[in-house]
Specification:
The protein has 525 residues and is α/β, with parallel strands linked by helices. The protein is built from 19 helices and 15 strands. The strands form four sheets. The protein has a five-stranded parallel beta sheet, sandwiched between helices. It has a four-stranded antiparallel beta sheet with strand order 1-2-4-3. Helix 4 (110-128) links the parallel strand 5 and strand 6. The chain is globular, with a radius of gyration of 28 Å. It starts with 6 loop residues before the first strand and ends in a 9-residue tail after the last helix. The chain binds one RNA strand of 76 nucleotides through strand 1, helix 1, strand 9, strand 10 and helix 10.
Amino acid sequence: MPEPFIERSQKPEHGDYASGFPLKLARVAGAKPMSIAEDLIGLMPPAPEIKSIVAAPPGFINFTLKSDWLTNQVDSILSARDSYANIDIGRGSRVQVEFVSLNPTGPLHVGNVRGAILGSTLANVLSAAGYDAEREYYFNDAGNQINLFYRSLFIRYLQALDKEAEMPEAGYMGNYLVDLAGEFASTEGDRFLKMDEAGAVTELGKLGVERVISKIKEELQLLGIEFDSWFTEQSLYGNGQYERAMSLLRKEGYIAEKEGATWFVSTALGEDKDNVLVRSDGSPTYFATDIAYHYNKFLERKFDRVIDIWGADHQGHVPRLKAAVGALGVNPERLELIIHQMVTLRRGGETVRVSKRTGDIITLRELVDEVGSDACRFFFLARSANSQMDFDMELAKKESADNPVYYVQYAHARIASILRLAEERGIDHSKGDVSLLTGEPELFLVRKLLLLPELVDTIARTLEPHHLPHYAQELATVFHSFYKQCRVISEDEDLTKARLKLVEAAKIVLAKTLHLMEMTAPGKM
RNA sequence: GCGCCCGUGGCGCAGUGGAUAGCGCGUUUGGUUGCGGACCAAAAGGUCGGAGGUUCGAGUCCUCCCGGGCGUACCA
């Protein structure tokens, strides 16, 4: 027996909502879809919102809403204002969105931008969907890479003070480290030369990490991104969480010692192979600390839902982390991973390498300076996380004038301009009668406005924010079309007031959409 | 080799198993002596990478093949 379902009609001719349920039911019922549709319609009680329910070949049921119910929604939008499209599917449950989480060994580059934009937008949408959403940045301030960073910085520091020193093998060669070391040479002087080298490397290194993190914060701000929490790997060791996570795994029988190392027996959970947790030299792997980190997320901080956003280069890590979370006694479905495909950056068709270690990078700052935050966000957001993207900076700049970004924002500016004019003329539309909005372009616009709450619902469930820019563009199109067909401020005072209400509602919805994407909604352009 | 992702008009992308596959850019043709022309209207342009299969119905699900990306570490 199939489950009944109803969905948005794909075309206006099919009403507002439609169901292909009779087609599904025909299989098991052994009856003709059309007659099932008609029978079902006969069983449905009349509803005040519904104008008509009709059967349509080959067996759909189409529902059309009443115009006065639709236009009344304009008043609802006006009274909801900024909270319009806020829904409550989350019921206040706690969800954590962790993203970017780049190690503090260098500045953010374009490869990190995609995750940053995805994560911040998702967190916004989840908040609107009634979740208590927390944005977290996790950074690795322990382990191999950070030691290498410490050493690299120290060598650059020595060089900045005209000492002979050679960079370590595979060290961080980027110019930013040279600059950073130069900064420290002038602000800190040569005081690190006077202590023992190991201490100096660590102390200078810590200063370096601090500095890099504050730069990362600044850069994220350029895209409007702020985090609620900055979580350090060190803290996992500081208060024993690492040990607790490991001993829990051990207690559950998922740990084995072999070949001089400590292993997570993921084969017991259907994985292809086991994974090393503690190397034979006694140091924990990234995997081990990631398990401890997720132990912290679920068992210490008790998030109901955890979303990690990773690049495709970490995709192979997903099954074993899920297995590990399960081994900790947490339902792995509570951990959701968004894997976004890689971004290749181009400049006029030429691929730009984005390796931190070789140093040839285009930073987030350069990207935002050249292309602009709004355009960046729209561009990156419009593509589904599953598809890889080429980002050509030349093209992005060149096309920006004909960009959907400006098309959408222009609609908002236009609306603002109309409302400004109405205000200048002293028109008070607060008592406007929305039932006068009977024209097709008006109702079409109302229908479009009503989609946003459903979109928030969809995105909160599917974690696919790329629908947002597409909706924004459709909404702008419908508004522009309405604008062309319906003069807002006219001699007809009552109609003017009614239409001003509609226009203001459109402004609220468009601004909300832009703000969910963390884009600006300009009053003028 | 194996695993994950992608392949949709010239280009860039949407498309919760459903009705005639959509949108932007580009191309062509029109449009305002009124609220912002950064706009609107219309047209041309598709055997949805290929072949099988499941289904009343497949761009969507399954199998195989082709092409591209990313993995496949006692790196992160």
